Amino acid sequence: MKLLLVEDDPAMQTTLLRALDRRGMRVQACGDGREALDLWLAAPPDVVLLDLSLPSMDGLQVLAAARKAGLRTPVLILTARGTVGDRVLGLNTGADDYLAKPFDLEELEARLRALARRSASNGGSDFDDKSASSAITVGTLRYEKESGAVYHLDQVMELSPRELALLRPLLAQPGHAVTKERLFELVFPGAQEVQYEAIEVVAYRLRKKLAATGVQLMTLRGLGYLLKASA
Questions:
Q1: Going by C-beta distance under 8 Å and a sequence separation of 6 or more, which residues neighbour residue 179?
Q2: Domain containing 79 — which CATH number?
Q3: Which end of the chain lies in a sparser environment, N or C, as judged by fewer CB atoms within 10 Å?
Q4: What is the Cα–Cα distance from 25 to 1, expressed in whole angstroms?
């Protein structure tokens, strides 16, 4: 696994470098937010381990800029900020998991490997991509795989990272149900403190944004969700 470690505390950075290296990970480390974004853009790693308190750009600014640039690398936020509000803010910005300091190294390793496995098993994206086409079209919606953007009538839709994570696997299988369990894993990978019902909140918000597109997000009781384009 290739890991980008972004941590500005020298002692913590050194400790994590040694520990993760012993666990067989190839780690590139830096302690500055702007430098981290440059490294991420230049050579996307398998997983980013991101502290929030950083010089030049804080971790949330780095994450927001990366997601805006279309980088979909799994991100685990590592920080001393342990309040629920901070966790929600990080997840809403586009993080995939959250671990508060102090932490157990075994748990950190397990979470990093879980994020890397999910990304690798899905071809580096949120769903299996076995098509040679660079775009998927469902009704008036078009998903551009390279950029990660979803368009409605050639206009980019304003979707949160969670809404995108829910929509992409449904776009890959239009007219076919995707289970709530599978979607929960994709929308909240590695999350241990998120209630299962949270997927319904994301679906509700996405459904409202799709209302004007002619593409319906349908709930099939006992099966999951599917996308259906109007005839």
A1: 223, 224
A2: 3.40.50.2300
A3: C
A4: 5
CA distance 89 to 26: 29
- In this predicted model, what pLDDT tens digit does every residue of 83-123 receive, in sequence order? 556 667 777 788 888 888 888 888 899 989 988 887 776 55
**Spatial separation of the C-alpha atoms in residues 132 and 145, rounded to whole Å:** 11
128 within some domain: no
Q: Which residues contact 186 (CB under 8 A, 6 or more apart)?
A: 118, 126, 127, 165, 166, 168, 169
Same domain, 140 and 220: yes
Query: 101 and 172: one domain?
Result: no
Q: Which domain holds residue 13?
A: 2-121
Measured CA distances, 191 to 66, 91, 95 (Å): 21, 10, 10
Q: Is residue 218 located within the same domain as residue 114?
A: no
Structure-token pair, residue 86: 């901070």
Residue 33 · residue 7 · CB < 8 Å? no
Residue 178 per-residue DSSP state: B
- Taking only the tens place, the pLDDT of each residue in 195-231 is 888 999 999 999 999 998 999 999 988 788 999 887 6
Q: How many domains does the chain have?
A: 2
